[in-house]
Amino acid sequence: MILVTGATGSVGRHVVDGLLKEGQFVRAISRNPESAKLAAEVEVLPGDLSSPGTLPLDGVSTVYLVAMGDRPYEISQALADAGVTTVVLLSTSEVLDDAEEQPGAIAARHAAFEDAIQRSGMLWTFLRPNEFAGNALQWAPQIQAGDVVRAPYGDAWSAPIHERDVAAAAVRALVDDRFHGAKLVLTGPETMTHRDQLGHIATALGRSLEFEEIPAAAVRAKMTAYAPVEIVDALLGRLAETVGKPATVTTTVHNITGRRPLTFREWVTEHESDFR
């Protein structure tokens, strides 16, 4: 039995579907099982990573884990104590190995989960994706309202990865023991700036869209109204660090899945309706 956490998220839903296609028995946890809207074959049970004791681990051997909450060591201990042997963790490419201090709160949180899992004695695989293509959805309200996207760091670079590629890599790691002990950096097939991303969206919509750069401080003031300050600073700090620095593209998705990774343009085509 494979337990999928974050099963109703943008990646988790594809992980569930991929495991079902592999003929796996899947259990998913949700704070609201009745509204999860997963396939009928999936056993959906209540559970919350913020309360490790609520996790339904009976009969579970393998876990797809998202780094949610601030109790990584308790979660890892709960999994190990229940007899879980293998964990595939959705981490981030921001984690720096052997660093005394991680570059921001986001990297620090994921590094703590990685450390906790390694210390637990379970077999593990860490997925470290670059920026998700889906982050561009934050611009949707502005694009629906007009032709200008106002945001900081238009010249920040990344290699945006499709959520389906992250999920495909996760599925392979969950069912294939060749990836035990691997730290897999996942990227899309091309590096581009946020201005470039907006250009692809404009082309798909047949519109002329402009990226108007605004000070990060103005965005920070709005974001801290609904997100922790340390997370906001980490997000904005990461963008600032990548200005003028094209991202390194990896071949990991192809190496693991045997197919080419999906492009940002393909992601936009699939999500075009979200911007209309």
Automatic annotation (TrEMBL):
Residues 6-176 form the NAD(P)-binding domain. This is SDR family oxidoreductase. It comes from Nonomuraea marmarensis.
